[in-house]
Amino acid sequence: MKKIRVLIADDHHMVRQGIKQILELENDIEVVSQASNGEEAVKLAREFKPDVILMDINMPGMNGLQAIEELKKDEGVYKVVVLTIHQDREYLFKTIQLGAEGYVLKDAEASVLIEAIRTVSEGNSYIQPNMTSELVREFTRISTHSRSKEEENVLTSREIEVIGLIAEGLINKEIAKKLYISEKTVKNHVSNIFKKLNVSDRTQAAIYAFKHNIKA
């Protein structure tokens, strides 16, 4: 079985060792390297080519945000899960803007972190479930009446309504009720949205809506 190769970037040695011990209890995960700051994370990522990087935000010298920005210059080679104490939606929004694929809080259950690693390694996005409301609040805060021509051309007006409701955390049944259409019609719209935006799950669709200020 091919293992998911992980790099841990955190300035606290005991934190890194604790995470390493947790992850290596899993048969499909191995920790290939550890970094104590952003500069080391960038250097070791380019050396070891891990499948997933666990990135703390607050580190001396180059911080986690700067490291993500630097790594994302390498044409999408690296998948990053931010592992942080910060519950502030501004940090969540910023890491998404920089291209991070995942966001998990340090006080989360080990199972949440493991799920995030596996999800991101498969090419999907992962935001810790209880942080979704923060994403929606930040989305609402920055929403404007303007909408880019690109998304107007890509999505129909109904699809824009649907993806906006997905970003608010509604399931298909709730969207159908809100828009007075059948659940089957909602499923068709969701499928079309995924195809048009080239995304594979609702989290990625919500992130797209968030980034492009799409609101139902």
Structural notes for this entry:
This protein has eleven helices and six strands. It is of the alpha/beta class and 216 residues long. The chain has two domains: 4-128, Rossmann fold, CATH 3.40.50.2300; 143-211, Arc Repressor Mutant, subunit A (Orthogonal Bundle), CATH 1.10.10.10. The chain has a six-stranded parallel sheet with strand order 2-1-3-4-5-6, with helices on both faces. Strand 4, helix 4 and strand 5 (102-105) form a beta-alpha-beta unit. Helix 2 (38-48) runs parallel beside helix 3 (64-71) and helix 9 crosses helix 10. It is elongated, with a radius of gyration of 18 Å.
Can you give keywords for this protein?
216 residues, alpha/beta, Rossmann fold, 2 domains, 6-stranded parallel sheet, 13% strand, elongated
Which structural class fits the helix and strand makeup?
Answer: alpha/beta
Which residue ranges are poorly predicted, with pLDDT under 50 across at least 5 consecutive positions? Answer: 142-149
Largest sheet: 6 strands, parallel
For the termini, the CA-CA separation is: 43 Å
Instruction: Count helical runs.
Output: 11
Number of strands: 6
Strand residues, percent: 5-15%
List the helices and strands in order: EHEHEHEHEHEHHHHHH
**Shape annotation:** elongated
CATH architecture of the largest domain: 3-Layer(aba) Sandwich
Q: What does the average pLDDT come to? A: 86
